[in-house]
Protein: Bifunctional aconitate hydratase 2/2-methylisocitrate dehydratase
Organism: Pseudoalteromonas arctica
Amino acid sequence: MSLYTKYMEEIQTRKTELGLNPQPIDSAELVSEIINQIKDTNNEHRKDSLHFFIFNTLPGTTSAAGVKAQFLKEIILGEEQVAEITPEFAFELLSHMKGGPSIEMLIDLAFADDAKIAAQAAEVLKTQVFLYDADMERLKAAYEAGNAIAKELLESFAQAEFFTKLPDIEEKIEVVTYIAGEGDISTDLLSPGNQAHSRADRELHGKCMITEEAQQEIVALQKKHPNAKVMLIAEKGTMGVGSSRMSGVNNVALWAGKQASPYVPFINIAPVVAGTNGIAPIFLTTVDVTGGIGLDLKNWVKKVDADGNTVTDANGDAVLEEAYSVATGTVLTINTKEKKLYNGDKELVDISSAFTPQKVEFMRAGGSYAVVFGKKLQTFAAETLGIETPLVYAPSKEISHAGQGLTAVEKIFNRNAVGVLSNTPLHAGSNVRVKVNIVGSQDTTGPMTAQELEAMAASTISPLVDGAYQSGCHTASVWDSKAQANIPKLMAFMNKFGLITARDPKGVYHAMTDVIHKVLNDITIDDRAIIIGGDSHTRMSKGVAFGADSGTVAVALATGESAMPIPDSVKVTFKGKMAKHMDFRDVVHATQAQMLKQFGGENVFQGRIIEVHIGTLMADQAFTFTDWTAEMKAKASICISNDETLIKSIELAKSRIQIMINKGMDNEAQTLQGLIDLADKRIAGIQSGEEPALSPDDNAKYYAEVVVDLDQIVEPMIADPDVNNDDVSKRYTHDVIRPVSFYNDKPVDLGFVGSCMVHKGDMKIIAHMLRNLEKKNGSIEFKAPLVVAPPTYNIVDELKAEGDWDILAKYAGFEFDDAKPKTAARTKYENILYLERPGCNLCMGNQEKAEPGDTVIATSTRLFQGRVVADTSEKKGESLLGSTPLVVLSTVLGRFPTIEEYKSAVEGIDLTSFTPVEEAMTTKFNAGEAVPVKVVS
């Protein structure tokens, strides 16, 4: 059977079974067969083959793009003739292929002997930005050899004509509102985790956005208002909380954006999204990737009395009143020049934050990638010509306050800033390019990252990146047909690109399904590092980490850079004494509760850096805090540790990196060994006193300061989705924190200990509790199922070596076996202990899930509706979040324990040794200490 025949059968199956269009082509072999059918003017498939070649072949560095670009070059040179594809049309098609082989062909043509063809190729090249080192070196060599076309191209690039000749964005953009949900909208609504396997198939994945009914309502609005863009809204909430999925934005763009190129299917850009409380920071970054618009509507405001005091309800929460309506079907106008939102002639709200000079450039260029690559290309061209880089793009926003010290994040940004013009330290509000040290890609967004890398014509990892890792944790629970089809292909691509991969494409080392955040936390060996990862929980306890969409991850991998503002910081310190029966998870939840109380319900963490002065808590345990900051809606977090603790944390990271090396996971570039060398250098700097542990200056300025009183934490604290709250906007917000006594006698249907919120200490707590219960009762009976998924294989190995795994295995009704991994997800649970494979498990919700309607108590991080547990018609599923000992005891009892039962169960267990530091963890301000590095690239 020919590849084309097979493709036609797939098309028919796709159409009949799924109602979808043909899958875009990325295979060189299939395109070659299609080209042969195009050449044969009598071929019965010629018409369809022409259509597939022109409109359905993926661009960039796919193997299909290479064959397509070569054929177009042959048409332009007259070596092949196709009546439907003139040389002029061939040039147009090359111009839409972005980079990689298309750029190679265009440069070939620009340097050809035929002057007319060379001139045409040069004009197309002047519109392109995705040029890489090999392309630039060709231009540079030709220029130095006196080639006039090369000089013309470099002059155009230096003036950034690829950007300046683009049309300005429209002054007035008409939108019609669509309320996608009331309350916070998580990306699970836009791109459900249980459909993660289809994310790389954009049309198929688009079918899962919100509901089919919602999709049709959006289509109906478009038909009714053909001149308006549909704007998706989170009413009384924040849009895009949780994971920073590109797939969520892609789905919105697919239904409510515009096609990026007529010759590339299902890649849409420029969606408009909004929220009463704005857009989650990492989601907004993703909107920027597509050149879209994200609005902070502020259409519900706190009600005040005659004296200006906030009116509160019976629960003490602020009463909100509607400033203006955005009910579905309301036609509004965005004025991009005035930066205001209008209803007719009535001004509703200032939206200037959505139209900063940088964001306007993203919109004009069709996305942030084009701006990032354009700046690099302009700088290269100017340097090659020996001229100053003309000021074309909006300059980096560089804010500096004389005499003001720096927060921890400001110090990190100053250290990593690239192309900075200022000679003074940068403060919050500045917007700069920064060098990225560590990059992580996860396995349910990884296929999209691979697509993005192909689309931007990247073929190898940037040498600026210290280390990068491709995980396998999100698909670890079940090795089903979907995982078997997607994951090996992903690992092979990323391994070739230069990442350390969880699975070895050659099968040399054992597949590792460790949770990505834990691995990134281990390979981060510098507290001054910047980390970018394809998951919202990329929040390390060393350095500063930003969860990002698959596209931003791709840019970081390809360029070693990212562009972002320096956020404001909120300082978190502790006082009092931690009760012996309290777990650090209780401190984490109490932090959120006390913060909200201290600031009258305002979440001061949202969109900011949480600088937590953790002191002597090791990185593994501190990660419990930083991980949860994603649910606090913070942009990122930073742990301030003392020198001794930081050294211990780096030494632990070194040992785990060495284990990876011993397993055979290092690559030809010896990335892992390079990280150990950098770790040794960092430790030496701390020990010598030349480069002590990161700390803020004593006169740094914070947006707010939160003091957590440990004395107030006397009961285990639970984060509750509050599924039955009369106000739907207050469900699933992560803001409802309650003591365990609130739940006296409440039944528990399932317990889960695992995902990124636990560490080795949690596994040892389970073992200790089982020994205690065994000693007390003679045997252990679970009255509710307990699922345990250790975060890493290293932890499993260490538990086995120390004897703790034995007690876990003794009471396990199921223990994972890598030789025979599960091929189907569970739909029912017995009242036993399940020892699952390291990985995300229930937290991800794409494979394993609780039974619908269950009340689940978990160490997970997700309260989103339907993520861990779905609803039934009779009962809503509840995913309540708490500490490891609370989860274990609740499953043994089959209900929530009383405080007395809980205290008895944890007696003698060292849950967390955490004592607030007494001295201020700051550095004496020195104005000359943190001058930005001036690296131009």
Summary: DSSP finds 31 helices and 33 strands in the chain. The domain at 172-350 is CATH 3.20.19.10 (Aconitase; domain 4). The chain has a mean pLDDT of 92. The first helix runs from residue 3 to 18.
